[in-house]
Every structure is written in C-alpha cells, then in structure tokens.
Amino acid sequence: MSDQIMPPITVIGSNDEHYDPFPLFRPFPNMGPPPPGQFSHDSYCTVHQSLAPDIIPKDLSLEFLRDTAIHIANKIIHTPGSQNHEIGTFIIKMANGSLRTSELVKGELHNVNFASGPLNAGEVIVAMIHSHTPIAGVETGIPSSSGNHAGGGPGDTVVARNLLNSSAVDPGMLNYIVDIASGNTYEYTAAGPDVRPLGANITKDTVPGRCPR
Ligand SMILES: [Zn+2]
C-alpha cells in the first residue's frame, strides 16, 4: 500500500460514428420514445437475470453496476434532446467501492466525445455508457464498429477496447449502449472483437428481488 496520490489520468472516449444500413443489423419495429416514467421502478428491489459477461470489472458487484447503468440510462433518456443527440459518460469505481460518473456529455446526432476527467487515488473506470439516437430500420442497440458506420472514427467497439490500454481502466470494463428508439440498454464487454451481436438487454431482464432495508 502506498499513500502516494495517483496522478490524474484523463481518458478520452471518442465515438465518432454515423450508421449505415448494414446486414448485421436486425430490423426492428420502431417503438418510438419511451413514455416518461416508464423506468421509474426501484431497481434496487429487482435482480437482473442476464448471464454475466465473460469478463467483468473485479471487486465489483455486477448487479450494482447494472442498476447504476440503468439509473444513468434513465437520466440520459429523459435528458431534453436525447432523441437527436448522443449522450455519454464513464462509470468510475471510487476507492470506497461506490460508483460515480464523469461529466454527462451531450454530443451530436451520431457522435459524442466524453472524458473521465482526473481520477482520484484508488479510482478506476469500470464502464462506459452512451446513447444511440433512432434510425429507422437499424438496430441501434449494437455498438458501432468500423464495418457498420460511415463516420471518420473507429467505432464504439474499437474505442472501448483501446481504452483497456490505460491503467486507469479495469480490464473487465463494460460498454453500455442506450438505445433511444426502444429505451433498452444493452451490455457489452470492452474486450473482444469489433463486430458484436445484440448484447444482453439489462432493461428488460429483471425479476422481483429483495429490497434493502
Ligand atoms: Zn456509439
């Protein structure tokens, strides 16, 4: 153990993307925006049923992280302009085990750049989360990759994987996509290939659980 303060590290998550129709995407009926209040359930009284990803952040409850991701997703969904601006942030585990976000950044129609900002001693980035705005006929719950977007950037999967090179990022970092069209949030590992199938839907996978006192 060292009392030395960890120097601030800034991690930039750039998601420069512009979707093209792509065979990988499974067309889905556009359900329109979720009505306000639809996601107001108390997530701490439910349990997520999706299988755990192959790799997850260490020393952190996946249930707690998923609840936190849904909480942030609800905030993103109900942010004015979320229909036509991507919104994103990092989820950071603090030294005491609690979670916080970095600044919640509102980007553009198909692009958002967000940064963790300086990290305090003992803090580590455990997840990133950003929204995708609706595109008719496109499964926007899937992270972008070089093969399915026409923007200048590498896409979500490459950006997330490259962040694993930072000592400020947990090797099990997860990458959450908030699909504004459906209101669902999907879970992906940062580690892994460029192209992914649709991930676990952590918005619709809960069953009643025990509420904390
Ligand atoms: Zn994206």
Second-tier CATH architecture of one domain: 3-Layer(aba) Sandwich
Largest sheet: 7 strands, mixed
Pick out the low-confidence regions: 1-7, 15-43
Derived structural class: alpha+beta
Radius of gyration: 17 Å
CATH class of one domain, please?
A: Alpha Beta
CATH topology of one domain: Cytidine Deaminase, domain 2
What's the total count of β strands? 11
- Span between termini: 34 Å
Number of helix segments?
A: 2
What do these coordinates show?
Helices cover 11% and strands 26% of the residues. With 213 residues, the chain is an alpha+beta fold. It has a domain at 56-204: Cytidine Deaminase, domain 2, CATH 3.40.140. Strands 3, 4, 5, 7, 8, 9 and 10 form a 7-stranded mixed sheet that branches. The protein has a two-stranded antiparallel sheet with strand order 1-6. The termini are far apart. Mean pLDDT is 79; it is low at 1-7 and 15-43. It binds zinc ion. Zinc ion is lined by residues 15, 17, 130, 132, 143-144, 156.
Map the helices and strands.
Elements: E1 12-16, E2 46-48, H1 62-77, E3 87-93, E4 99-101, E5 105-106, E6 111-115, E7 124-132, H2 156-163, E8 169-179, E9 184-189, E10 200-201, E11 206-208
Parallel strand pairs: 7-8
Antiparallel strand pairs: 1-6, 2-11, 3-4, 3-5, 3-7, 8-9, 9-10
The protein binds zinc ion (ZN).
The site of zinc ion has 7 residues, from β7.
What would you say about this model in short?
This protein has about 210 residues and is α+β, with helices and mostly antiparallel strands.
